[in-house]
Amino acid sequence: MDRSAELEMLRKALAIAELNPSRVTLPDDRQVIVGNMRFHYLDWGGSGHPILLLHGGGLTAHTWDVMAVNLRDRYHCIALDQRGHGDSEWSPTVDYGVETQVKDIEGFIATLGLENPVLVGQSMGGLNSMAYASRYSAKVKALVVVDVGPEINPAGTQKIREYASTPEQPSPAAFLERAVKFNPLRDPVVLQRSLYYNLRETPNGNWSLKHDQRRSSEEANRRATAQRERLSAWVLKISCPTLIIRGAKSEVLTDEAAERFASSLPNARWVRIENAGHNVQGDNPAALLDAMLPFLRESGL
């Protein structure tokens, strides 16, 4: 698909979201080496304060496209394909732990020279941004955590894990059929666009999701659970302004857990986004922007 067709897909997604940015453009695709790993990221340009966007497990940097194109006039938005996802390299040792990904974020921010960035992370990306902010809170201008926290519903995360482990399918259309059943909130046109960036053709002619499914092994899940338990203590060190977002229809984060998370921090609040599940940025990007923009302004941006 050429750039003009990609641009048209983005315009359709914006129209469905009822968003009308001043200028609709595509980001620059870029690569960078951090440590011994190659990472792909999207750079939306601009000279404003940097915002680093971190996607959830099984997703890609493109999950933030509709958000970023609306933020780019005022902020410098950068969306990272985290290790094992999208067009970034997979870990040869299947190391996808939070602590390792915090080192990735640290190295990425240093390599690009992002000064006091805003971190916006959803699900896995939210956990990683929380862990980074707990360690480097003075270096984070503000933090937005989307539908995740120290307390999450295991049943809800299991459903997502099972969908993200979808085996190879004969066509993108087969994936789209599964995606529509999994997330009926989302317009099929938007889901089709998301899958365009999150599928690759395999040598045998089938199609697979663009992430390392080894990270969902039983052993990897045990390690992740242990790290989340440690994260509960780490997050108390977060002192930067923090906005916690919960999708009203999410099966991962409850109102009560979001309230407890916000109450545990010195400078935090939480907001519930209606008509959204776990992937708030895809289900209701307009409402997410409405929640984020005042928060960013209050944070001096």
Q: CATH H-level name... which superfamily? A: Alpha/Beta hydrolase fold, catalytic domain
Instruction: Give the ordered list of helices and strands.
Output: HEEEHEHEHEHHHEEHEHEHH
Tally of contiguous helical segments: 11
The CATH topology is given as: Rossmann fold
- What spatial order of strands do you see in the largest sheet? 1-2-4-3-5-6-9-10
The secondary-structure class comes to alpha/beta
Q: What form results from the Cα inertia axes? A: globular
Radius of gyration: 18 Å
Text of the CATH class: Alpha Beta
Mean pLDDT rating: 93
| Tally of domains | 1
Alpha-carbon distance between the two ends: 36 Å
What is the helical fraction, as a range of percent? 40-55%
Number of strands: 10
- Percent strand equals 15-25%
Task: Give the biggest sheet.
Answer: 8 strands, mixed
Which blocks of ≥5 consecutive residues have pLDDT under 50?
Answer: none
Q: Which helices and strands, and how do they pair?
A:
Elements: H1 3-16, E1 28-34, E2 37-43, E3 49-54, H2 65-71, E4 75-80, H3 98-112, E5 118-122, H4 124-135, E6 142-146, H5 154-164, H6 172-182, H7 188-198, E7 199-201, E8 207-209, H8 218-234, E9 242-247, H9 255-263, E10 268-273, H10 280-283, H11 285-298
Parallel strand pairs: 3-4, 3-5, 5-6, 6-9, 9-10
Antiparallel strand pairs: 1-2, 2-4, 7-8
